Amino acid sequence: MSVPMKVQTTAEYAELSFRVPVAHAAAVQKIINDLLALLEQANDDDRLYSVEKVFPEGITPDSVLRGARYREGLTQAQLAAKVGVKVSHISEMERGKRSIGKEMAKRLAKALNTDYKVFL
Q1: Could you give the domains of the chain?
Q2: What is the model's pTM?
């Protein structure tokens, strides 16, 4: 996923632009709409939200892996080469068909510039 772009359009509004894979567009739009609904319901003193409230479906290791790979601009084949596994293993991990163990999490974290604990 690309870095969001923020452009100030007026004193009250800012225009945001996101580039996401078509397959994830509906999910991203739902998350943004849910966040906007939470903001409308919030009091000025109530601006902190739990992860569970923002992402009711949950954040899974497979979605974290896929997002981190997109963020780094890597294909599954490129990531597989960096961590020394078959491309099919990366695909299976991203689809939740293969678990990510601690050692694999450390290899993925090094290749994706993140903390290994996000994959566990």
Answers
A1: 5-54 (no CATH), 61-119 (1.10.260.40)
A2: 0.57
